[in-house]
Structures are given as structure tokens and as C-alpha cells.
Amino acid sequence: MARTYYKLKTIWLMLMLAVGPTIALAQHTAEITVNLAKEKAPMTPVWAWFGYDEPNYTYMKDGKKLLTELAALSPTPVYVRTHSLLVTGDGIAALKWGSTNAYTEDAKGNPVYDWHLIDSIFDTYVNRGIKPLAQIGFMPQALSTHPDPYRHHWKPGDPYDDIMTGWAYPPKDYNKWRELIYQWVKHSVARYGQKEVESWYWEVWNEPNYYWKGTQKEFFKLYDYAADGLKKALPTAKIGGLDIAGTSGKGAQQFLNAFIKHCIADTNYATGQIGSPLELITFHAKGQPRLIKGMVQMNAAPQLTDIATGFRIVASYPETRNLPVIIGESDPEGCAACGMATNPSNAYRNGTMYSSYTAATFARKYELGDQYGTNFAGAVSWSFEFENQPWFYGFRDLATNGVDKPVLNVFRMFGKMRGSRVEATSNRMYSLKAVMDSSVSGELTDIGVLASKDKKSAAVMVWNYHDDDKAGPAEPVALSINGIPSATVVLTHYRIDNEHSNSYEVWKKMGSPQNPTSAQIAELEKAGGLQTLGKPQKRKTQKNTLLVNFSLPRQGVSLIQISW
């Protein structure tokens, strides 16, 4: 239905062009209205959550640099989630692999705890004001029921299942598993203080409908013993799960419902009592890009459907409807470490398509949170950086070799949106239903809006997004900001497009060097920052209204910030 509507609208526009271009272009203009007097809900920084597979990148050179930037862009603490915090190994990072060697056993089978690598990871976070979404997993080799083979050597292009080795199995001794978690949390409290650790979130495992070689009941047992160990070390710690994959799938829905019911009413495997601690709910949401005749075509519909399904399930239980909901991975597709050389449909990642997709989908995440009335706390963008890899290889990352990519600047824009979300409409914005039905696949692009207001400032994000990765003309935008409580404002216009906030385009103009000079790196770092269109302007309002007209390129994002 949505596709038919937009095709008919395009035909109508062509007829208008035949009659008179002035009339047609006037109808084609994106007319956006923002009313600062109508507050909708708090501008919760649900975007300020990030994650990655490889924990050892955290304390490496470019990892530290990026984490410093992430901490700086948010008005509230950023949360970070990473895999493999309990995996056995030498601490050397590789794609989809990491280790801390936190747990081994001596010749007699007695536990040996070593926290120095986990400390290196969490120290990096805490020293920057970042909070861990601490993932309890995966299984140490000495505890695994199938310890060999353990270390995998996956690389892009290899079968994805090759990573499923001994770390994915249940523990041979659940009491030792519980004691490991107890000792970890006890150590964290001693190192960082009770108040700090109380501000973290803890979760057990990741995608147990995929990254788990045990049964569903064995996973519930794993959860119960982990939660019991955590609560014995710190009763006020917050724990939950289960970061299910493919949330809208029938099997995933069954698993998520069973998990919630287990935590509410089943006998706890660790304590023998009824119920298990559950203080947050997590699940995953992924889109599905594809390659059509050499062109990348995005698809946000599966990602938003996953989110709607998870929100609906959480809201259906009185015991969970008010719990914090964290989308543990929320991305355009599934594999961050699969570059565009082996997965051509991932070629969207370096340029502005990734940034405009991110703006357009986060606005719909807010809409879904409003629709289901959930306590929507965060959506983890599973994208970080890959240390010592080729420049702009097409990983799903925020920076390459220490140089920020365009997508990171969307998060910098979000960081300037504070206070409350306010009413904002656009005649060119696809409805939530249309995007969930067929993404943004009509003839017209999605020129959408998200707006916020604080005590002495307001911010309006506008994007020009389409699923198809092809060139298109810049389109006129007529923005009206109403309800401004001042006769004058200072207007700053931030922009992401091919000419602004875009290190990738600058790199290509250099000839795409894989060994850029220090001068070139400095130029790329400058291009990777958030840039403005011109200088800030002092503007007068008319009857508490400000009119702003500009053109927005296809896949471009603007942030209009006003202060008074």
C-alpha cells in the first residue's frame, strides 16, 4: 500500500511539472513545523549506547581515542557493552574475538582469578565517565563442558558458524560459575566503589538462541546462578537479559516470553525459591540491506519490527512493563566485522547513507517507545572501531584508524538535543506504519524531523533519507520553529553531507591512500569532526516564530540549533 501511494504521488508531481514547474516544486518542498510550546516526552539519550565484539580494543590506542570522543558527545554518561569479558586467552584482539583470562584452574581444579585485563577495560570506561553494560559471558575454557576447540580464527568471508567453539557451552560446574560472578562483582565494588557499580547494568550472555550450545532450560539455570552470585556480592546491582536475536521471529518470541515467565514464576535453579532477579529487559533489532544490480538498498522495516515486537512483549506483563528496556544491539544489519569486500551490501557504512539511516531510524525508535509506553532506556549501536585494519574497509564502525566517519557526527548532533522532545511535523516524512511496512522505498525520499527544547535552546534534526544508495538532487526545506520565548536567537546550522563532516569523501579525493601521510591524517581528522554551514547567525523572530529555508542533499542530515 505504501509503495503504491508514493508511486501515485510521483505521477501526480510529474503531471504538475507538465502544467507548471513553480506549482510542482512548491508541492515538492519539505514543509516542516516545530512547536516548542508542545512538549511530548523527555529527550532521553537512548542513542548514547555503543557496543562491540572485541573487548581488547577498549584499551588500545584508537579504542581509547574513540571512547574519549564518545564520552564527550553526550550530556549524560554513555553506556558501553562488549562481548567475551570472561573468555580464556592471551588478551590479543582479533575480529569477533577477545579474551581476559579472568578464570583458569590450577592442577587440582581450584579456581584462579586474574582481573588485570578486565580492569584495563573497565578502568578505560570509568576514567572517562562511561558506564558498563557489563555482559556476563562467555564461558571460560576451564569451566566449559566442551573446552576444545576453543580459540577460533574467523575472518571475513568465513562461515559465521565457525566462531561457535568451546566458549559457547554450559559450565561443567554451576557452583563454580556462580562463584566466578560473585568474585568478579566483589572485586569491582572494591576497585570502583559501591555507588559506581550500582550505576552499571549487568546482563547474562548474548543471543542465547544463537550463541548458546545448551538447552533453553540450561540457559535459565546459567542465568539464575549468575544472578545469585551477583546479588550476593552486591544486592543492589541491576541485572537482566536476555539479548535475544531476531526478536520478531517466532522462536525468539517464544524464548523471550519463556525467560520473562521463568523470572516471574518458575523455581529458581540456584536458590530453590520462586522467581529470579530481573531489573532490565534486553533484545536485539537488525535491518536487512541487500545488493540490487550493484546498488545497495537498505531496509529498516525488520529492525523496527523487532523493536515493536520486543516493546509489545515487555508491555504485556505487569511485572516488566515499567522495567528499563535496552535494545542490546540495534543496527542496519548483523555483522559489524563483515566488510564490504566480502559483503557488498555493507557498502553503505563509510558514507552518508549510514548517518541518514541512523537519524531516520532513531526518530522511529522514539515513536515506538511512545506507542507502547515502555521505559525505553537505550538502543546500543553495535559499532565501535577495528584496530590496525585497512582504511575505510567497510566495517560497521564509528571511526577508521582513529579518523571519525560521518555516522559518528549524527551522535554528536543527538548530543546537542536536550530537555524535552517537542511536536514536529513534516509533509515529506513517511509515517511509522509505512516505514515498518516497506521501509523508505517509495519514489520520494523521507525528509523527516525530530526536535527538542531545553530552557534556553532548541534543536531540530532534519534528514533526507532513502533506502536506495543513488545520487539525487538537494531538496528545498521550509522550516518553521514556533513558540520561541525570545525576540532574538543565535542560529547554528550543523550539516553532514558530501561536503561537510565527511572524512570519507576527503579520503577518496586524496586517492584513497592506505598509507596516508601525517599531513593527510591531520586533514582527515579535521574532516571527521562535526561541521557547520557557515557561521552562527543572530536572527530576529516574528511573533515567536523563526523561518529557516535551506536545501538538503539526498542522504544529508542537518541540525538547526537555536539559543536565546
UniProtKB/TrEMBL annotation:
<feature type="active site" description="Proton donor">
    <location>
        <position position="207"/>
    </location>
</feature>
<dbReference type="InterPro" id="IPR049166">
    <property type="entry name" value="GH39_cat"/>
</dbReference>
<keyword id="KW-0732">Signal</keyword>
<dbReference type="InterPro" id="IPR051923">
    <property type="entry name" value="Glycosyl_Hydrolase_39"/>
</dbReference>
<dbReference type="Pfam" id="PF01229">
    <property type="entry name" value="Glyco_hydro_39"/>
</dbReference>
<feature type="signal peptide">
    <location>
        <begin position="1"/>
        <end position="26"/>
    </location>
</feature>
<dbReference type="GO" id="GO:0004553">
    <property type="term" value="F:hydrolase activity, hydrolyzing O-glycosyl compounds"/>
</dbReference>
<protein>
    <submittedName>
        <fullName>Beta-xylosidase</fullName>
    </submittedName>
</protein>
<feature type="domain" description="Glycosyl hydrolases family 39 N-terminal catalytic">
    <location>
        <begin position="32"/>
        <end position="527"/>
    </location>
</feature>
<dbReference type="InterPro" id="IPR000514">
    <property type="entry name" value="Glyco_hydro_39"/>
</dbReference>
<dbReference type="GO" id="GO:0005975">
    <property type="term" value="P:carbohydrate metabolic process"/>
</dbReference>
<comment type="similarity">
    <text>Belongs to the glycosyl hydrolase 39 family.</text>
</comment>
<keyword id="KW-0326">Glycosidase</keyword>
<keyword id="KW-0378">Hydrolase</keyword>
<dbReference type="InterPro" id="IPR017853">
    <property type="entry name" value="GH"/>
</dbReference>
